Amino acid sequence: MSLSSVSVTAGGRPTSSPRKRAPGEPRSIGYLYILPAALIYAAFVFAPFLHSIYLSFFDGNGITRMEFVGLANYVDIATNPTLRSAFFHAFELIVFYSLIPIAIGLLLATALHRSRIRGVAFYRTALFLPYVIAPTAIAVIWRWILAPRGPLNSFLEAVGLGFLARPWLGDFTWALPSVGMVGTWIMFGLVLALLLAGVQKIPNDLYEAARLDGAGPWMEFRAVTLPGLRYELVVALVLTMTAALRNFDIIYVMTSGGPGNATVVPSYLVYQQAFKVAQIGAAAAMGTVLVLVIIAVNLLVARAGRGER
User: pLDDT tens across 190-236, in order?
Assistant: First the structure.
């Protein structure tokens, strides 16, 4: 106990004086600063989400009296092949929106860092542009490029590869991968910007030590670059996987879920169930499951990132 915290009573006995609070105490005052944002979030995000969960237990169009059906809407999601396949399509899009951009981004970020190419800032900005362009505009442009008589097929025929030309968005096999490659093009710039920023903060001493130990490019990547980009990879995975799972505007403009149900995804089904067939309960159930899936995926990614520390 410090002398400053001791006082003497009339009888000569020392007593401890009350501990002085540190500057900024009590820390609970901080909650007052976040209260306005929390109230807005609760009113416009959390409360509608809870109401959506409530509606998911009913069947009806949301205007007339709705009938309570319990878990029937959730059972339908698990048993209806069309509804179930929508989630499989969304997870397939994760490969194009997340895994491929991250793999290419790691390769290019490492190469750009090792070679010290001039004009990296310009290339990074140019590749980042697709991410900030309105998705609807991107979808319109790519729908034109991938049309049966669009620029892509015309180019293939001009270079003697006409046998590869096909109606990309009208082919049951190639429609979803075609949309996925558009997602790769959009997300690649974001991932590259994140990874380039992460590579630049890795101390050069670590690379020099690895080279002194005789590490080649591959071992240098595994021992230095990859661990140094752990946090950037977690952020990239969360952003890209969330974009893949909630994808709507690209699908809506490019294919509208077609051909057939080849490109149907959960977010498009939410729109279709709510505004085309007026099944508010089914749409609410689909939206609730989609939100829970996104939360679960993000938690798994964040936990995996913490586990590597």
Answer: 999 899 889 888 888 888 888 888 877 788 888 888 888 999 999 99
Q: Which residues contact 262 (CB under 8 A, 6 or more apart)?
A: 172, 175, 176, 255
| Residue ranges in the chain whose pLDDT is less than 50 | 1-6, 308-309
Tokens standing for residue 276: 């085309």
Domain ranges in the chain are 72-307
CA 68 to chain centre: 34
Residues 6 or more apart whose Cβ sits within 8 Å of residue 186 = 97, 130, 131, 135, 138, 243
Partners of residue 58 on adjacent β-strands: 68
Exposure class string for 195-219: b at 16+ Cβ within 10 A, else e: bbebbeeeeeeebeebeeeebeeee
pLDDT at 211: 81
Structure tokens at 56: 């998911």
d(CA 61, CA 59): 7
Cβ–Cβ contacts within 10 Å for residue 14, how many?
A: 11
Of 147, 239, 139, 144, residue with least CA distance to 181: 139
| 12-45 per-position pLDDT tens digit | 555 555 555 555 555 678 888 899 999 999 999 9
- Helix (H) / strand (E) element for 15: namely strand 14-16
- Which CATH fold topology does 72-307 show? MetI-like fold (1.10.3720)
Given this model, what pLDDT does residue 69 score?
A: 92
Residue 304: CB atoms within 10 Å: 13
Name the pTM for this structure.
0.83
Evaluate whether 233 touches 307 at the Cβ level (below 8 Å): no
The confidence score (pLDDT) of residue 217 equals 79
Distance (Å, whole) CA 288 – CA 29? 34
Pairing relationship of beta strands 58-59 and 67-68 according to DSSP bridges: antiparallel
